[in-house]
Amino acid sequence: MKLYQRIFIFLIFTLSISHITAQDTGLSVQGVVEDHKKQGLNGVTIFVENTKIKTQTDQNGNFRIHYKKGEATLVFSLDGYKKFKKKMNFSNEGSPVSIQLEEDQSVVKEVIVHGKGKVKALQDGAFTVNAIDVAKLANTTADLNQVLNRTTGIKVRQQGGVGSDYNFSINGMSGKAVKFFIDGVPLEMLGKGVDLSTLPVNMADRVEIYKGVVPIHLSTDAMGGAVNIITPGSSKNYLDAGISVGSFNTQRINLNGQFKDDKTGIILRINSFYNHSDNNYLMKDMKIWNPAKNEYEPRNLKRFNDRYQSVFGMAELGIENKSWADSFFIGASQSVFDKQIQTGSNQDVVYGGVKQTGEAHNYFMKYKKASLFNDHLDLNVYAGFSRSVQKATDTLMRKYSWDGTFEPSATSEKGGRSIIMQHEDRLYSQIGATYRIVDHHKLIFNYVLDYLKNTTFNKLEEEKDDVVPAKMTKQILSMAYQQEFFNKHWTNIFFAKYYKVGLQKMVFDQVTRTDKPVKDNFSNWGYGFATTVKITRDLGIKGSFERSYRLVEPQEIFGDGVAITSNMNLKPETSNNINVGLYYSHHWGEHAFRVEGAGYIRDTKDFIFTVPNLYNSTFKYENLSNILTRGLEGELNYQYKRLLNVLMNVSYNKAYDNTKFANNSEDVISATYKKDVPNQPWLFGNVNVSIGKDDWFQKDSRVELYYGLQMTEWFYKNWKTYGNPRNIPIIPRQTLHNIGISYSMKNGRYNLAFDVTNLSDALAYDNFKLQKQGRAFYIKFRYLLK
Question: Which residues form the TonB-dependent receptor plug domain (predicted)?
Answer without folding.
Answer: 123-226
